[in-house]
Design goal:
This protein has one helix spanning 30-33. With 62 residues, it is mostly loops. The chain has one domain (1-62).
């Protein structure tokens, strides 16, 4: 989104189509993704003291 939020989708979400840019897939380490703090829907997804991504690698299929 327009700030530091990102979505990892587990199923299609047609209401989001055309609203966001798809940047990739989790290809390994999903067990680590599962440990990222999750925001409360009642608080618009806000996370108090959020986790930080220190290193992210972008790979391309060739």
């Amino acid at each position: 989104s327009a700030n530091s939020q990102f979505f990892i989708m587990f199923a299609p979400a047609p209401p989001l189509d055309g609203q966001y840019t798809i940047v990739g897939n989790v290809v390994s380490g999903m067990e680590l993704v599962d440990q990222i703090k999750k925001g409360d829907q009642a608080d618009n997804g806000t996370v108090t003291d959020p986790d930080r991504m220190i290193k992210v690698r972008i790979a391309a299929d060739k």
